[in-house]
Amino acid sequence: MKIERLVMRFQNIINVNRKKIVSIIFFVIIATPLLLQVLGEWTGYSFDYSLNGYTDIYEKPKASLKEWMKGEYQKQYSDWVSNNFVTRGLGIKNYNQIRYSLFDIGNGKQVIGKDHYIFQQPYIDAYLCLNEDNNYIYEGNKNKLQKYVGDLVEIDHKLKKVGKKLFFYITPSKARYFSDKIPDRYYKMSGSDSSLSGYEYLKYLLTETDLNYLDSNQLFKDSSVDISFYSTGIHWSRPFEQVTDKKIIEALSDCSGEQYRNIELGGLNSSYIPYWRDSDVQDLLNIFTAPKETYYEYVSNIDVEEYKPLRALLQGGSFAQGLITDYFDESIDSSLYYINYNKHLYDNNTGDHQTISEWDDVDFQKLLDGSDWVIIELNEAVISNYSDGFVEYLDNYLDSYVPRKQELADNFVPSQELSRTRARGYYGYEDTYRWTTNDSSLTLYNERIAEEGLKIEFVVPDQLVVEGSVTVKIFVNGQMCTDETYTDFGDYCVNIKPEKIESKKDTYCIEIVSSKCFVPSELGNSTDSRVLSLKMKYIGENE
After folding, report:
1. What global pTM score does this model have?
2. How many CA atoms, within 13 angstroms, populate the side-chain half-sphere of residue 149?
3. In what order do the strands lie in the sheet with 311-316?
4. In this structure, what are the phi and psi dihedrals at residue 408, rounded to the nearest 5 degrees?
5. Fewer CB within 10 Å: N-end or C-end of the chain?
């Protein structure tokens, strides 16, 4: 009996101490932000942490009897206090870390799976068909997806009639690749075995068409890339993305019979620091520590041999941004318009942005006139959104679309408005020239170049040759006409004979690629942060 009493007494001591320890930990977690708040106000030093993601901005409300009586002032004041508390970020990170580390709980938008694999809810819903919209066993859903694919087929036919083409590609879901990491509770929620995912049904429908399309899931099976997704991100890994982007450009060349410049992949770099979006979902958790991974990315560049400029209208979601980053942002294309799922239109040539309320607000005449391809990306998780009505609207719009011949300038001179040409990589007018980036292009319509040849006048600034030489390549309608190296700064004139130029109905796309560029602000003698290369003075017929 004495031994039993001693054991019970020892257990009581442990239980009392455990409660004390838990109370102390809880008190420290609550009190620390308050203490740092006081210290911060006293010392003027910030003890807080910044948060990732979208942040609302609240201004301190002005006291008003009317607002007080309606209860609005109290709410506005509460919002201001909670969002301007000095150690708000620290408190949120403490809270999120406890939920993540002890209970495998995300912050409401993320799902913490087995082995701390992070998912987002829509990907799990689509893969497991967790609601009626995602289950294509139902005839209503089948009919909707059949109409969507039927609209794609109609768009393809209508574009071909006006000399343009359609390319469609499917991007993958992390839930499909790591289904074994999805929490068991979601499998229990799926219930019935009679389900059909949108991805599986879409694949079947596409095989019944002659559309130009790419299923990146199949591409991954056939490639040498070992890493599809990381535990920390919702987007595919950079190597998977880079291989797919390269394959897309190859497919465009094969489908059209044209030779487009493509992405060249070299060695594989590795790092403990994520590349681009490789830890995007983990970052949104706003926690202090999480499992570390080794991340990879191919060394890549763009082929600069002879090519046909690629002009495209791209519609898709965040997965489509990989193609923009790996290809179009490398300044190799004369035109790209990008429409995001969230109803935003971006002109990649000018940087202009438009929020889309209704599809009727979009100038599809301009977008289609400036594009040879319509490229549509669709992710598994949003198949049931049917491209937000873009496909249906475009199908109807093409019934009355007639390509409009764009008016182009005869020659480029610095003082003329660039709106008279299709131009990329040119800055504003300065005296007798315009600065260019290291890869600029413009399109001219000139009936005299075919007989008289092409003349290009430019200035090589001293910043490009102060430590060696600079090489300038000039392409006309995709063919490289000159490849010159300059060792001295000053004015230069390049004359290209008519027989070296392929005329396309008197329209000339002239791209000038320089091997060097500089940023004035980085040289310490200016606040100018532009990327500069050559000073362009004249492009036109050989006078």
Report:
1. 0.71
2. 23
3. 213-215, 165-171, 373-379, 311-316, 335-340, 344-347, 353-355
4. -120, 155
5. N
